[in-house]
Amino acid sequence: xxxxxxxxxxxxxxxxxAPPTGDGFAVKGAQHLEWGMKNRLARMFxxxxxxxxxxxxxxxxxxxxxxxxxxxxxxxxPLAPHVNVLMGARGALRSCIPPTVQNPICLRVGYDKxxxxxxxxxxxxxxxxxxxxxxxxxxxxxxxxxxxxxxEANSLGLLAxxxxxxxxxxxxxxxxxxxxxDMARTEKFFLLATRILAENGANVVKSYYCDGxxxxxxxxxxxxxxxxxxxxxxxxxxxxxxxxxSEGAHGVDMGRNIFQAADPGAMAQAVGLVVHSGYTAxxxxxxxxxxxxx
Length: 294
Ligand code: 5RP
Description:
By secondary structure, the chain is of the alpha/beta class. The protein has helices at 35-44, 60-63, 72-75, 90-96, 130-135, 152-169, 187-199, 213-219, 234-246, 256-259, 264-277, 281-291; strands at residues 52-56, 85-89, 105-108, 110-111, 125-126, 138-145, 173-177, 204-207, 224-227, 251-254. It binds ribulose-5-phosphate. Ribulose-5-phosphate is lined by residues 56, 58-59, 144, 176, 178, 206, 227-229, 254-257.
C-alpha cells in the first residue's frame, strides 16, 4: 500500500484564525526571515494592503511573441506605473525595459522547454544564476515547478537550488505552479502543489484560481498570487481577481488579462483597485469602462 492510501483527508483549515505575521510585518510566513529578505518582500507587497499587482510578461521565454507582447519595449513601460512589480526574463528586461524603471523586478531564472513540445515538464534548468540575478537588481527569483508531471523531481531540484542561492543573498523565491495539459485545475491539485512549493522553500507561490480557493490559501503558509491565465472578458477577469483576494490571495501576477485588454492601462489600474483598495469587481469594471480609451 502506498503511504498516501492511508492518509486522512485534510479538512480543518481554521479559516477563522489569521495566519501568524509577527512584528506587524505584512507578508505571510515571513516573520522569521532576516532584514534584507523582508525589505525585498516589502517592496513587492504593499505595506498597507499587504497585497501586490505583478505584471507578468515572461510568456516569450517559452511561447515566442505572444499576442499583445509582440513589442515589449512599446507595451510594458507605459504599464509600469500602474503595477507594483514587473516579472520577466533577463533578456527581455535588458533589451526592452529602461533601467530607470522604479518597480522592483521579479526575475524568471528558470528555463523550460518551448510550447513546441507536448510534454514541457521534463527539460527545465537554470537560465540565470544568482550573480546574474543580483546584476539585474532582482528582488525576487521565479521558476516554474511541474507537480504531478514527468519533470516534477527535476523542477523541485531546481527550485531548491534557487531557494538556496536566494537565501544566501537575501532574495526571496517565487515558485510558479505549472498546470500540464492533462492536469485538472482542482482544489485538490492546487492544495497539493502550492503546499509542496512552500514547504520546499518558496517565499511566494504563484497559482491559478480554483473552486475551494480559500482552502488553498489557508493551507499555504506563504502568500499566493494568482496567474490570470487565458484572456477573459475584462469584467470576468476582475471577478476572478476579486474572488481570489476575498478568498485569501495576496495579489495577482497577471499577464494576458492586462496586456491583451482593450485598454491595458485602464485594466492594470482596475485590477489594482480590487487588489489594494477593496473594490468589488463591479465597481472596478465601472472604473475600467469610465477610464478606458473611448
Ligand atoms: C507561467 C507564468 C506566466 O508568467 C503566467 O502564467 C502568465 O500570466 P498569465 O497567465 O496571467 O498570462 O508564470 O509559468
